[in-house]
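Exam revision sheet. Question 4 asks you to relate a sequence to its structure. Input first:
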Amino acid sequence: MKFASTHHTTSDWQALQKGLRSFVYHRLPQDAVDDVVADILETIIRKKSDLRLASNPSAWVYAVARSKVADFYRRQGREHTALQTLNNDPTLLNHDEPHDKPGLHDCVMGFIGRLSETDQTILEEIDINGTRQTDFATRNAIALPTVKSRVQRARNRLRDRLIACCPANGEDSNGNATTCQGACDSATSCAPGRI
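Answer key, structure tokens:
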């Protein structure tokens, strides 16, 4: 499935598409990338309410993407290969290792980079780098309940930005199905524009 170009998509939605395409590109045969990215984007649009409830929105997006990659391999009857691929997935490895360079990690970091400095710091440390909240609290001389509250508020703001980039109900102002900006031809990092 190839996405038709449209002027109704936001630059953030386009950046999310580009990050997802890069994420999928490194995990699937090239001829399957567009279809799987379309499945992921459709799920994000359909399940915006789940994204609103997700305590960690970046993890939610990763989970949807990984799930669709696994679905592809299951449909192809190569579940063993999919499990090996997922077990070697950098997003599941030690938090000290880079997630997905370039690709979805860069895209999520672009969204985080649009948040306040306080939100950026706490999300990068806890959600991206895997620092325990207790360690973060100790290192920054902040009470643990305060850290828990701050990380929750930062995740909520990130979630709101991710939801805001999705086309409303997958339709444009004329009620036509919203299509995504053309598929990215390269696996380069994305940089969200205005949010």
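Marking note for examiners. DSSP finds nine helices and no strands in the chain.
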